[in-house]
Amino acid sequence: QVQLVESGGGLVQAGGSLRLSCTASGRTFSNYAMGWFRQAPGKEREFVTAISGSGGRTVYAGSVKGRFTISIGSSKNTVYLQMNSLKPEDTAVYYCALSILQSITHMAHDYPYWGQGTPVTVSS
C-alpha cells in the first residue's frame, strides 16, 4: 500500500512563491517516476511536471516551465514542487502522484497512486 500526502498549499499573491511537498509512505521514490498534476475548478486535471525514477530527467508543462521546479529529497520519500512567479492561472488543487514506471511519463493513467491534493490560490 502506498500513501501520498501533499502539503504547502495556500493563498499567495501573483508573483509570489510556494513550495509544495509530498511525503510518501509504503515505498521510496528511488526507482519510480513522480509527477505533479493540478485541477482548477471546471477544468480537467492537467499535467504539471514529472521527474524520472533516477531523478536525472525532468519535464514540465509549457505553462510552468521556467517557473516551477520538481525535486526529490535526499530521503527519497518526499517530492517537492517549488513554484515561483505564480500567476492567477496557477490556481488549482495540486496533486502528487507516484508512477509504477521508472521512465518519465506525463500521462495520468501511468500514476496509480495519488495524494489528496493541496489547494493553491493565487490572487491578482
How does this model look, in words?
- The protein is mainly β and 124 residues long.
- The chain has strands at residues 3-7, 10-13, 18-25, 34-39, 46-51, 58-60, 68-72, 78-83, 92-98, 113-114, 118-123.
- The model has no long low-confidence stretch (mean pLDDT 92).
Write the H/E string, N to C.
Answer: EEEEEEEEEEE
Largest sheet: 7 strands, mixed
The overall pLDDT average reads: 92
Distance between the termini: 40 Å
Oligomeric category? single chain
Beta-strand percent range: over 45%
What would the principal axes of the Cα set say about the shape? globular
Number of helical runs? Answer: 0
Q: Structural class of the secondary elements? A: mainly beta
Give the number of DSSP strands. Answer: 11
Unreliable stretches covering 5 or more consecutive residues: none
- Gyration radius, to the nearest Å? 13 Å
**Helix share bin:** under 10%
List keywords for this structure.
7-stranded mixed sheet; 4-stranded antiparallel sheet; 124 residues; 0% helix; mainly beta; single chain
Summarize the structure.
This protein has 124 residues and is mainly β.
What order do the helices and strands come in, and which of them pair?
Blueprint: E1 3-7, E2 10-13, E3 18-25, E4 34-39, E5 46-51, E6 58-60, E7 68-72, E8 78-83, E9 92-98, E10 113-114, E11 118-123
